[in-house]
Amino acid sequence: MIEQGLEHFKHTDLLKRMCAFDPAQRIASFADARRELLSDKFLNIDFSYTEQQHYRQFSNSLYAVISKIEQNTRYLDEIDDIQSRLEELYKRVMLEEFIPDNTSIIRCFVKGSYYFKRALTFRVDVLKDFIDLFRSSSREKKNIILSNIQTKLDSVNRYDVSQEVNDIPF
């Protein structure tokens, strides 16, 4: 690192873990590196009790409707795109009590294959409260919110589509 002129680099520890020879010591992905950078950068940002409640109700509802995610599935990470998708969804369901199709909310965050629970419901008022939180948040807070949602989704069971057993109809 010193030979590259990085002796005063702020994220030296993270860079070392990204370049570690032993894969077990290496940071798993760029998304994990991004989350770590965001968490370091935003240690002084506080969320009110109400903001935390709106986030938790939304993220718990999102987490609850997803059964499992295919291991190669990616998350959407463009904040403006996610906000636009959420607002468009809300316009389509705002007169309902529950979102009629859980995939419409999942697709706002997940790009790829997943299994979801049809029987569970996602309340429209929870979506509205989350959109209000997201709209009123600074860019930094939005990054933290998105990072937290992705971390929660990382805990959903993963499956390998190549290992899925197909039912033979005879």
Task: Write a concise synopsis of the structure shown.
The protein has 170 residues and is mainly alpha-helical. The chain is built from seven helices and five strands; from the N terminus they run αααββααββααβ.
Would you kindly provide a written description of the structure presented here, covering whatever features stand out?
This protein is mainly alpha-helical and 170 residues long. The chain folds into 2 domains: 32 residues, no CATH class; 111 residues, no CATH class. It has 7 helices and 5 strands. Strands 4-1-5 form a 3-stranded mixed sheet. The radius of gyration is 19 Å and the shape is globular. The model has no long low-confidence stretch (mean pLDDT 86).
